[in-house]
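Title: Comparing notes on inverse folding

I've been comparing how different people in this forum approach sequence design from structure. To keep things fair, I'm posting one structure and asking everyone to reply with a full sequence. Here's the target:
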């Protein structure tokens, strides 16, 4: 079950994350890095500002076997300086602020592709210009987020998970 799409203003958001090229079949390898990031932050006394997210940088929704580029990250209140002990592939970044089409979904993560299509159709029907360009590699996004609001340690039933989808609008 998803809420109606809406336009929201999001501030810039610092984060620590890891970037990878995956397919839908190998996506779990990147998702499995989130506890590592949370642990790295905890070792340094940095609390997450919110639940983890996936930021889809390049994706081809029409090709389930094609590699896509995604960031798995954890938002923090202030930019974190990496000290070289977090591994060579962890990095500090900032999610861009701006206007986004957003909606919240309560249900299994496998349902998110359909929810995303609904949000994108809504934006198209409203004449909104998304911060996305087409390339030979697929859709290149300024910011396309999937943010997990439910702590799986407290709610193991994936059908009850709350996830926010947000698609940045072109300025």
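Reply #1:
Here's my take.
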């Amino acid at each position: 079950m998803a809420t109606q799409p809406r336009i929201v203003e999001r501030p810039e958001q610092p984060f620590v994350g890891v970037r990878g090229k995956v397919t839908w079949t190998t996506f779990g390898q990147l998702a499995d890095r989130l506890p590592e990031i949370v642990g790295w932050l905890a070792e340094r006394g940095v609390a997450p500002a919110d639940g983890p997210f996936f930021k889809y940088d390049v994706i081809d929704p029409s090709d389930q076997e094609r590699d896509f580029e995604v960031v798995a990250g954890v938002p923090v209140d202030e930019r974190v300086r990496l000290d070289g002990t977090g591994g060579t592939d962890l990095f500090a970044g900032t999610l861009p602020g701006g206007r986004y089409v957003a909606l919240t979904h309560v249900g299994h993560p496998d349902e998110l592709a359909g929810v995303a299509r609904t949000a994108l159709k809504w934006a198209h029907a409203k004449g909104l210009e998304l911060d996305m360009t087409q390339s030979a590699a697929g859709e290149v996004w300024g910011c396309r987020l999937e943010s997990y609001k439910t702590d799986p340690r407290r709610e193991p039933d994936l059908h009850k998970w709350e996830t926010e989808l947000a698609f940045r609008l072109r300025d």
